[in-house]
Specification:
heterodimer; A: 82 residues; 0% strand; B: mainly alpha; 70% helix; globular
Chain lengths: 82, 223
């Protein structure tokens, strides 16, 4: 069985997509967990402000999610475009 | 599974130049616009002091955004409120459109989100020049010291890429996850739950985040 250059490029694309997604998911995971934990602490200390805190928490988590989304876009480009 | 990478397009030639229109994105954006025009017509047909359900929904939406814009901009008039509220309404229904069968989200296309992101960027910088004057606007680029200017310019450009790719990546990733899971389990139980999660929940949050970030960029420029 011959392995040509195109096969190697395809294999490298899949490998790169997996590595990009796996490593890129570490940062948002840690960040979103930190934000959620802090929001829980704040709600426990001040339950009247729960609505405002939840809204702020969701926005902050969506912002910190963006690096994970970048790695998702890179992985999709590697799989479907290259 | 073949339809993941492909985009349905209309291609036609005008005076020797090739024009490409993304068919699905155009049709779905027009559906969203038609929905809001219809909603506005129905909600304001009979405005009373005691509102009917449609009118109170419209008042709730507009009132919430009015308060948010007032809180973050501190202006006496409402000059940025229509722009901000329109961005939210457009992206909100756009993100939720994938829940309905045979329709798809126009925000799955990078062109939609990037054009709205560039629009917010232009509005923010135009109002920065208008409020602070051209000299102070230029001076803010050399903020700590003079040779930090390239970094500040790249930082401003990265904001556009950041907000548009965030919305696009969320919607595209959600629809691909739904497609892959539906293919694996022959569309048995999970797809409606996934559509509800990615379309209704994530879509609403991302539309809110896009609008709030545009608002924050404007308020950073005019203060």
């Amino acid at each position: 069985m011959d392995i040509s250059g195109a096969d190697l490029i395809r294999a490298a694309c899949f490998l790169g997509a997996g590595i990009a997604m796996g490593l890129g998911a570490i940062g948002p995971g840690v960040g979103e967990g930190f934000v959620g934990g802090k929001a829980c602490e704040a709600i426990g200390r001040n339950p009247d402000e729960a609505g405002l805190l939840t809204r702020t928490m969701l926005v902050a988590q969506a912002v910190s999610e963006s690096t994970g989304i970048y790695s998702l876009v890179v992985a999709l480009l590697l799989i479907f475009v290259v | 599974m073949e339809e993941i990478g492909s985009v349905p397009q209309w291609v036609f030639n005008i005076a020797g130049h090739q024009m490409v229109l993304n068919k699905e994105t155009l049709i779905m954006t027009w559906i969203v616009m038609a929905f809001w025009v219809l909603f506005a017509l129905l909600a304001t047909k009979t405005t009373k002091l005691v509102p009917n359900p449609l009118q109170s929904a419209a008042e709730l939406l507009v009132g919430t955004w009015d308060d948010l814009v007032k809180d973050s901009l501190d202006l006496s008039d409402r000059r940025y409120f229509p722009f901000i509220c329109t961005i939210f309404l457009l992206f909100w229904i756009s993100d939720m459109l994938g829940v309905i069968p045979f329709l798809s989200e126009p925000t799955k296309d990078i062109n939609t989100t990037l054009s709205l992101g560039v629009m917010g960027f232009i509005v923010a910088h135009y109002s920065g020049i208008k409020f602070k004057g051209f000299k102070r606007y230029l001076k803010d680029y050399c903020e700590p010291i003079f040779f930090m200017m390239p970094l500040n310019i790249i930082g401003e450009l990265a904001k556009v890429i950041s907000i548009s790719f965030r919305l696009f990546g969320n919607m595209m990733g959600g629809s691909i996850i739904i497609l892959v899971v539906s293919y694996l389990i022959y569309s048995l139980v999970l797809p409606p739950v996934l559509y509800a999660f990615f379309g209704l929940f994530i879509g609403t949050i991302q539309a809110f985040v896009f609008t709030m970030l545009t608002l924050v960029y404007i308020s950073v420029q005019i203060k």
